[in-house]
Write a structure and sequence with these properties.
The chain has 276 residues and is of the alpha+beta class. The chain contains seven helices and ten strands. The structure holds a DNA duplex (16 and 16 nucleotides).
Length: 276
DNA sequence: CAATCGTCCTGCGGGC
DNA sequence: TGCCCGCAGGACGATT
């Protein structure tokens, strides 16, 4: 499942590959994954230059020369893959293809069709769209300090910590994998209510989130599910996960069997001994 | 107001 | 071998 490190990996790769390229042709195979009519989508993107690739939470933001944006969310199984040559074979689940001026193509595919590519007309529309989303701070923004993290937690005393970490309105970009890994790092049982966390634990959680996600980005993300980066390659961070999907296996820290529970409808693994 | 539930969709694994 | 059933999962909208 693409979370912040996976989406950020794609952003960095695409920034190098497609910035300043022109979109020469667009094909839409699955109208339901775009937000406007196929005709309008094509009319508004063909012939435009790609200016910049940004990211907010788990959403990729492609800025075009007509001051419009393409927002892409991969949800569980989406890919955004750059093919240097347009004749290369691509996913059979391709929904949108952007052909670029250097003879390449950018293919959005998603076998589940949960993901989307949204056309956003201008900066104002983008602003109001994100205002509606109400995303929390970006973990790697300089103003997301440990103090800020503590202040935000104070407002959510009754919430179980792991569920809160996954809430995009609390912190942007953290999903089921990294929320579980951060709890393991900080030796916190994911079910703990925020109000029971002490200062040391909150500090460790903050450090863990950043440290783990920074390492994950360096490894081009994790491919525990079907994730591929913008070059169509698997990430490497799945080899360094400590609890995610390790139910029944031995805790790397204390050799206890990892336990799996359900929290708000999401599978959650943790070590019942060293995560208290 | 906040937490939970159903929904979207499809590959995959288990059961027989 | 192959079919069928049910499950997982991010985020949204509806419900309690």
């Amino acid at each position: 499942m693409p979370e912040l490190p996976e989406v950020e990996t794609i952003r960095q790769q695409l920034a190098k590959k497609i910035s300043d390229k022109k979109i020469t042709k667009v094909e839409v195979f699955t109208p339901k994954i775009i937000n406007i009519s196929q005709n309008d989508f094509i009319k508004n993107t063909e012939g435009k230059l790609i200016r910049n690739i940004d990211r907010r939470a788990k959403i990729l933001i492609i800025e075009l020369s007509n001051r419009a944006y393409l927002l892409c969310h991969l949800k569980l199984s989406g890919h955004l893959i750059y093919h240097p040559k347009k004749d290369e074979s691509h996913s059979k689940f391709a929904h949108v293809i952007f052909y670029l001026s250097n003879g390449s193509k950018l293919v959005f595919d998603d076998f589940r069709k949960f993901g989307y590519v949204k056309f956003v007309r201008n900066k104002n529309e983008l602003k109001s769209l994100f205002a509606k989303e109400g995303f929390g701070p970006e973990p790697f923004d300089s103003d997301f300090t440990k103090e800020k993290f503590k202040t935000l937690l104070l407002k959510k005393q009754k919430s179980p910590i792991k569920t809160l970490l996954m809430d995009q309105k609390f912190i942007a970009g953290v999903g089921n994998v990294y929320a579980q890994e951060a709890c393991f790092y900080a030796k916190i049982n994911p079910q703990r209510k925020v109000k029971t966390l002490d200062d040391r634990e909150i500090g460790d959680l903050y450090d863990g989130l950043k440290k783990i996600m920074r390492r994950a980005i360096a490894m081009r993300g994790n491919s525990v599910d079907s994730y591929l980066d913008a070059e169509g390659k698997q990430g490497k961070f799945q080899n360094y996960l400590k609890v995610y999907d390790r139910e029944g296996q031995i805790c790397f820290r204390c050799k206890t069997k990892i336990k799996k529970i359900w929290m708000a409808g999401r599978g959650t693994s943790f070590c019942p001994k060293c995560q208290r």
